[in-house]
Amino acid sequence: MSKGLFDLTGKVTLVTGGNGGIGLGFAKGIAKQGGSIAIWARNAEKNAAAKAELEAAGAARVETYQVDASSEQAIIDGYEQLLSDFGRIDCVFANSGRASRSRSVLTLDSEEWHDLLNVNLHGAFFTLREGAKQMVKRAEAGEPGGSLVYCGSLSMFHGIAGINNYAASKGGMGAVVRGMAAELGQYEIRCNTIAPGYIKTNIGSDGGMSPEMEERMKQVDAHFSAKTPIHRVGKIEDFEGIGAYLCSDASSFHTGDTIVIDGGSLVYPPYAF
């Protein structure tokens, strides 16, 4: 049965870090449209829970793998296993990443600088590069197309004190994705970045936060809600639609873009009333 404009029947999507947060939001949208999903993430328990949730949402097939998204060789090996299991790859979401542990440029040391870039920049690049190789092979065999997606952030546009390595990774990959779009368009492979705003990912909502931290998070939520034209925090469900769209043939002429999903906060100046 057709699922309409975003029908993903027969398509295989890889989502790194897809067992929770925004990555699970992308995967859930794909599942609801009947796509098959491979998840790369380290936590086996969360992988199992995500698999069950995605299968219940309608995914044709879900497989999870414990892949180190900061390792070039692990990524290459991961694709070999994925292709052995699924036989093809149609869409890749390079979503794995971590937050900066830095709070000042003056104390951002080389270990923290490089460790974050290994995941957020280098790992994301290798993930998209290896996916592109497989899509090009398929195009040269007579079946063009494919979608490569990077999960960026509003730090690509804003100056945010202290988190320089995080912002460098997001801005750098934004440039990489635009370059890939320019090169790979001849194969009908599109390449885009998604830049989320403040998103409530439910991390810590399972009782892991102290009462003091819960109260602090309520204040943070209220602050961002007040500064966002759509007066609420973002939810992982807000990424289901864009995930399904970018995987589907409906986005076949959409490439080289940075798509902001932030409730309008980017366009809202800090001095607005």
From TrEMBL:
GO molecular function: oxidoreductase activity
Cross-referenced InterPro entries: NAD(P)-bd_dom_sf (IPR036291), Sc_DH/Rdtase_CS (IPR020904), SDR_fam (IPR002347)
Keyword annotations of the record: Oxidoreductase
Similarity annotation: Belongs to the short-chain dehydrogenases/reductases (SDR) family.
Name used for this protein in its record: SDR family oxidoreductase
PROSITE patterns reported in the protein's UniProt record: ADH_SHORT
Protein species of origin: Pseudomaricurvus hydrocarbonicus
Top-level lineage group: Bacteria
